[in-house]
Every structure is written in structure tokens, then in C-alpha cells.
Specification:
Immunoglobulin-like, 6-stranded mixed beta sheet, 5-stranded mixed beta sheet, about 750 residues, alpha/beta, about 15% strand, Rossmann fold
């Protein structure tokens, strides 16, 4: 035992020495550069322009190339391919005076060429290993193709489904989103950032971007520090704790100051309080956009951003073109510029670029490690886990591979829409649409017939706006009635109908906010016509946000929410529809009954007049026309089997802040199929020094149970589990009464009482 202890001490000492040695080497390299850099060259490192896409040879004569040669560029983004990236890097390290290598960034959001489900879909797996693996595969492929920096993960908490970018995040809950943030950073960066198959992560958007007023993108955010610390900031902090190498500032303002120039946010909180040591980059034109916010001209906002703690300017070139003048006028100091430059040089050192600037430019890797069959198989497997079965009356699902299956809808046969939003590197034409997936799955065992049935929307202009970036749906110019009649004719001749309806890929995502979050009316009309045939109908729902599905949930026997499943979507959907995979996804956002309930989320607070009886009750907090409850609650998701829960058992009913208590529950697969269940732990702080939510997620475990199998799932409850930020923004666990709740979703729980002394 003593020998093992001594060995452990020696191992720890060796690791500490290695880290110190690496830090010393980095400091030596960076210091040596800073000593010889001109002010202009330091400012140049702070400049991140968009390269656009060059063919080989074009770069040499571009304006970007001239700026690189002059030392006026620190990195590039939106350039793809080893040959083009090598060409740009060669200019930096062979033609510029100081030969400082460039960073190459890209929005590798949910995969590179092998595309995984949109992040909101990924979060519904509740599987941290799968989520980390998706980021690992993305890093492997992106780094093989020359990329060393990704603007991901997006960790904004979003509770308003009108906001299009809810699709890019991990839902409404800070605990789950924090776990996902850690997993994504680990997946991208691995254990060694200098390894050629890892890339630097850049969590975004710091901070509070998901709380934009009115659900409108880029809009103002206004909230208390108390809500920030408890509900919105935890995922960013988790990403920092996981070692994220960079951070992206958000577009919105905080306390009346845009995040890009907010010193409290970028320095006091991020660096001083959280200990972040990486660099901060603006979002696209985030610096120059502060002119519209009304806090100064380009020179003024650039100086304010740098002074606040921003290190790199994406596209605006405000830092590049005005900082020297601001130094001359005494508005900022060269020391502030030097500090920002240091952080960027340190990032390049950590990536190993000073040792080998071409370490990410291996053409053999690009040929053999991107869009491989193994990576696509992984994407298919994870996609199937992300789908959420919302309804399955009469066990319509899984389908049988027999007879005739009518596949109908504008999303049924569109490869380019399968990857979803922010899939900039995807091979869209090679994605698997649902039609192909069904046909391959049934082979000769059944007949699949297809009709479009409706356009995405009756409004051609709206459809054009929602199908940008090469993701059109080949609009059919026949009348709505003619399209429906064709689909109904096929449906009547079939045994079962699969309706592929919902949003297009770009109907959610950036700059895709919606005031109407229902399925477009022309598609609803199609669905009504299909239901009227009397044939069983399965709604395969494509969406990047929670939708209002009140009508559909009453009329359609089976609803499978497939989000946007990625490059292998069609095959993965077929896997679930035919029962090769038992669905296990659980919602990470609340689905409202009506738009007027928005924002609606499970971790709300009670009012002084909570609804205590049946809806409707006068002079209590409720609506006249719609109940308070959601259509589908946070954590909800059905399976092809059923699960039952026993009672919650605590190892002790009282504890102190120094103790731990275990909470256990027996879960049984009571159905006839093997399946996975996400067991969820919630707490309620009954009495607090400040008002507390009605419940908060504090743990979860995804367990696989064979038919008839029982398992006891156990959670450890400590002071940390029960802690929150109080009125003084101190992280505390207060004594008092707690409810420990465990169940299948946020509404269906068993509970026990715990007293903290």
C-alpha cells in the first residue's frame, strides 16, 4: 500500500513537472515573439477575417493573402480543404516577417462531413458518451481536412421556441446542458490539444443569447444576476472547467452593454471569477454591430471591446483599422493589445502550430478519415437514439415490413434537408432521405409508394426564405388541392401512411425565428386528408424546435419526432419505424399546448397564487382558455416497451452539509421488448432564502433493461446537489426541507422527503 502511495505521488509529480515544462516552453516562445513584434503585427493577430472558398492557386493573389503576408491576420474561417488551407498557411509561415502560423476555424457544430443530429436532437439522447463521441468524430474529420478550431459547442439555454437557434443548443435545463458542454469540449479537444486529430473548442454565445426578447434573433436580453447565475450561466462555466481553449462573445447586450464590450462579463466574471485562460473572439461582425447598439463609432466600440477583454475580432476589422489610432490618442494602451495578442499566440502554441504549422494539412488523412463508413455508422446509431416517440396509440409502431406503405410529405424525399441547420461541411447530396431509408429497409418485403402531397408552405416567398443555402424542396407549382389528391389516392391504396411533415432545415437555426410554431397550414391540411382515409397514420416530424402539436396529438395515433437526424437520417428513421431500434429519446425542451404559453419550462417558480385546484380557477395563476400544463413535458419520451417505477428509498431522511445520502428506485421493464430508459432525478427546495423553482434536474442515468428485467438505480445526494446561488450570488446549500423526486419525466415522478440540518 505504501509503495502504491509513493508511486502515485511520483506520478503526480511527473505530470506536474510536464505541465510546468510545457508552460515554460510556451511562455518562452510567446515572449520571444512579443519582444520583436511591432504594434501593427500585434494588432494583426487580433484579426479574424472570413476567407471564403478558394480553389488552389487563387489564394496567392487575393486581398487576404496580402494581409497575411503583411502580418495583419491571426486566423481565417470558412475555408475548407487541405490544399486551400495549406496554401494560406504557407503564406503565413514562409512569406510574413515573423512566420507566425494561422488558426483555421469553422462552424463544426454537429459533425463535419459525417453529420450527426442537430444539437437539440443530440441532447435528447441523454447519453454523454454518445454526445462526446459525436464531437470526437467531428474533430477527427475536421482536423483531417485542415481545421483546428471549431465555433462549438453552443451552450445557450433557450426557453422560447420562437427563437430559431434553439435548434443549436441543448434545451432548457442548466444541469443537463452543463453535462453536455463538458462532453462536447472533451470530444473536440481530447486529452492533448496538440495532437493532430483534436481541435480547439469555442463555446458560444457568451452570454445569455438564448434569452433574446420576443424570441427574435439578435435581440436584447435583460435579466437579473440571480437568474443568470442559477439558470443561464452554468453551461458556459462547465465548458470553462472542461478546459475550453476559447470563448465566443454573444450579440446581445447585458445590463445595457453589448456582450462584446462588457467588462463585467469578459473579464470580471469569465477571467477573474471563473479563471478562464483562453482567448475571446467576437461573433461575426459583433464589434461593428455595436455601432447600431448606439455606444459609439467603429473606433470607440473597438477600443471598448479590447479594454473589456475581447481578444479577436471576427470580420469587422475594427481592431485592425482603429487600435493604433486609439493607442496614439491614449484611449487604450499597447499593453492591452499585447495581452490580447499573447492569448492568441498561446492558443497557437497549445495546438502545436509553432512546432509544425502543417500538422493539420495531411492529404492522406483527408482521403481516409473523412465521411468514412465507420463514422457514418456511428452517426446513424446516435441519430436513432435522438428520436423522441411522442405518441403511439394502439401500438401503430413499430411498422411491419409487409404490404404497401405510403410515404407522403414535403420532407419525405429531400436529402439536402436531412442534416439540418449549421451543417456547413456536409455532403448534402449524399445524405440519406427518408424515402431511400424506407426502401432500403424493406427491400422486397414491402412496397413503398411516394407522393409529395404538399409544398413546405403555401406561401412561395416564405418557403424561399426557409430553404436557403442550397436546401430547397423543389417547389411543385400544382395547386394545393392537386398535390393532396395525388397523395390521398396513393394512401387509399396502401396499408399504412407515413407522413413526413414539419420544418425544413433552415426553418430553424440562425435568423429563423417564427411567431407561428405550428406545422404550416398546407401540411396540416394534407395530414387531415390522410387521416380521413381511415388508414393508420404515422407522423414523422422534422423540426428544429418545439412545435405546437395540439391538433396532431389528438388526431394522429403515432408521432415520432426525428428533429434533423444528420447525414444518415433516412436509415436511422427506418431503423426506429420498423423496430430495429427501440426509441429512447427524451425531450430536453417543453412542448407547449399553445403559443400563448411561451415561454414555458418545467423549472418555473410558484407565484403567490399558484393554481392549486382544477383549471379554471378565478384569482389564481392560470389562463382562461388553455390549461397551464404543457402538451409534452421536459424529459418526456415513449418507448416500444413500458417501464414501471417503485418507490424512492433514501439511505437517510436527514443529513448535514457534510453528509451524503443515496436515493434509490427500482425500475422494471414491464413490456415485451428490450429498451433503454432515462431515469431522472429532480429536487425541490421547499423553503429557501430566495424563491426556488418547483423542481430542478440534478441527475440522470440512462439504463438498458431487457424485457422483464429490474434494476435499482441509485443517485448520490450531497450538499452540492442541493446548492444554488443565493441573493449574494454565493453558492450555498441551505438547511431545510427538500423533496427528492425520481421518475420517467419531469411530471411523472415518485418522491421522498429529506431534511438538511
Amino acid at each position: 500500500m505504501k509503495k502504491l502511495f509513493v508511486f502515485g505521488l511520483l506520478a503526480c509529480a511527473f505530470v506536474a513537472c510536464e505541465k510546468k515544462s510545457a508552460t515554460t516552453a510556451m511562455d518562452a516562445k510567446v515572449d520571444s515573439l512579443l519582444r520583436v513584434m511591432t504594434l501593427e503585427e500585434k494588432i494583426g493577430q487580433l484579426n479574424l477575417p472570413s476567407a471564403g472558398q478558394f480553389t488552389t492557386g487563387q489564394a496567392l493573389n487575393s486581398d487576404i493573402a496580402k494581409k497575411i503576408e503583411q502580418g495583419s491576420v491571426g486566423g481565417l474561417f470558412n475555408i475548407k480543404g487541405v490544399a486551400a488551407i495549406r496554401e494560406m498557411q504557407q503564406i503565413a509561415v514562409e512569406k510574413s516577417r515573423l512566420k507566425i502560423p494561422l488558426l483555421f476555424g469553422m462552424d463544426v457544430i454537429h459533425g463535419y462531413e459525417s453529420v450527426f443530429p442537430i444539437p437539440l436532437g443530440l441532447s435528447c439522447t441523454w447519453d454523454m458518451q454518445a454526445i462526446e463521441q459525436s464531437a470526437r468524430v467531428a474533430a477527427q474529420e475536421a482536423s483531417a481536412d485542415g481545421i483546428n478550431w471549431t465555433f462549438s459547442p453552443m451552450v445557450d439555454i433557450a426557453r422560447d421556441p420562437r427563437w430559431g437557434r434553439i435548434s443549436e443548443g441543448n434545451g432548457e435545463d442548466p444541469y443537463l446542458a452543463s453535462e453536455i458542454a463538458r462532453a462536447m469540449v472533451r470530444g473536440y479537444q481530447g486529452t492533448d490539444l496538440s495532437a493532430p486529430n483534436t481541435i480547439m473548442s469555442c463555446p458560444k454565445h457568451f452570454a445569455l443569447y438564448g434569452a433574446s426578447e420576443a424570441g427574435r434573433d439578435y435581440n436584447t436580453v435583460d435579466m437579473s444576476r440571480h437568474r443568470m447565475y442559477n439558470d443561464y450561466l452554468p453551461p458556459y462555466k462547465a465548458a470553462v472547467e472542461a478546459g475550453a481553449g476559447s470563448m465566443m462573445a454573444s450579440f446581445n447586450e447585458i445590463d445595457g452593454i453589448p456582450a462584446t464590450a462588457n467588462q463585467w462579463l469578459l473579464t470580471d466574471l469569465l477571467r477573474t471569477e471563473w479563471g478562464f485562460t483562453g482567448f475571446v473572439v467576437s461573433d461575426y461582425t459583433g464589434v461593428s454591430e455595436m455601432i447600431n447598439h448606439g455606444i459609439g463609432n467603429l473606433q470607440e466600440v473597438s477600443a471598448r471591446a479590447l479594454a473589456a477583454g475581447l481578444d479577436m475580432d471576427m470580420v469587422s476589422e475594427g481592431l485592425l483599422t482603429t487600435l493604433k489610432k486609439s493607442v496614439d490618442e491614449g484611449k487604450i494602451t499597447e499593453a492591452q493589445i499585447t495581452q490580447a495578442c499573447r492569448r492568441i499566440l498561446e492558443a497557437k502554441f497549445k495546438l502545436g502550430l509553432f512546432d509544425d504549422p502543417y500538422r493539420y494539412c495531411n492529404e492522406q488523412r483527408a482521403k481516409t478519415e473523412v465521411f468514412t463508413s465507420d463514422n457514418r455508422a456511428t452517426a446513424r446509431k446516435i441519430a436513432a437514439q435522438s428520436f423522441v416517440l411522442l405518441r403511439n396509440e394502439g401500438n401503430v409502431l413499430p411498422l411491419k415490413k409487409q404490404g404497401s406503405i405510403a410515404l407522403v410529405g414535403p420532407l419525405a424525399n429531400t436529402a439536402v434537408n436531412m442534416a439540418g441547420t449549421w451543417s456547413v461541411a456536409a455532403r448534402h447530396a449524399e445524405s440519406v432521405p427518408l424515402l431511400s431509408g424506407l426502401q432500403k429497409s424493406v427491400g422486397t418485403q414491402a412496397r413503398v409508394v411516394y407522393a409529395k402531397g404538399a409544398n413546405l408552405d403555401a406561401d412561395a416567398v416564405l418557403e424561399a426564405n426557409a430553404t436557403m443555402f442550397g436546401k430547397g424542396l423543389n417547389r411543385d407549382n400544382r395547386s394545393e388541392a392537386a398535390l393532396r389528391e395525388e397523395a390521398v389516392r396513393l394512401a387509399r391504396q396502401s396499408d399504412v401512411i407515413v407522413a413526413a411533415l414539419g420544418e425544413s432545415a433552415e426553418m430553424s437555426g440562425e435568423a429563423s425565428s417564427r411567431v407561428n410554431i405550428e406545422i404550416p397550414q398546407t401540411q396540416k391540411d394534407l395530414l387531415q386528408a390522410l387521416i380521413a382515409t381511415g388508414k393508420p397514420v404515422v407522423l414523422v416530424l422534422f423540426t428544429g424546435r418545439p412545435l405546437v402539436l395540439t391538433d396532431e396529438s389528438k388526431q394522429v395515433p403515432a408521432i415520432l419526432n426525428v428533429w434533423f437526424g444528420g447525414s444518415e437520417a433516412g436509415d436511422a428513421i427506418a431503423d426506429v419505424l420498423f423496430g430495429e431500434v427501440n426509441p429512447s429519446g427524451k425531450l430536453t425542451t417543453t412542448f407547449p399546448q399553445h403559443l400563448g404559453q411561451v415561454p414555458i419550462f418545467y423549472a418555473h417558480k410558484n407565484t403567490g397564487r399558484p393554481l392549486t385546484g382544477k383549471w379554471f380557477s378565478k384569482f389564481q395563476s392560470n389562463y382562461l382558455d388553455v390549461p397551464n400544463e404543457p402538451l409534452y413535458p421536459f424529459g418526456f419520451g415513449l418507448s416500444y416497451t413500458t417501464f414501471s417505477y417503485g418507490d424512492v428509498t433514501l439511505s437517510a431522511t436527514e443529513m448535514t452539509a457534510r453528509d451524503t445520502v443515496t436515493a434509490s428506485i427500482e425500475v422494471t421493464n414491464t413490456g415485451t421488448r428490450d429498451g433503454a430508459e432515462v431515469v431522472q432525478l429532480y429536487i425541490r427546495d421547499v423553503v429557501g432564502s430566495i424563491t426556488r423553482p418547483v423542481k430542478e434536474l440534478r441527475g440522470f442515468e440512462k439504463v438498458f433493461l431487457k424485457a422483464g428485467e429490474k434494476k435499482t438505480v441509485t443517485f448520490t445526494i450531497s450538499a452540492h446537489t442541493l446548492s444554488f446561488y443565493n441573493a449574494e450570488l454565493k453558492w450555498v446549500a441551505e438547511p431545510g426541507d427538500f423533496e427528492i423526486q425520481i421518475g420517467t419525466n419531469s411530471q411523472e415522478v415518485k418522491q421522498a422527503k429529506l431534511v438538511v440540518r
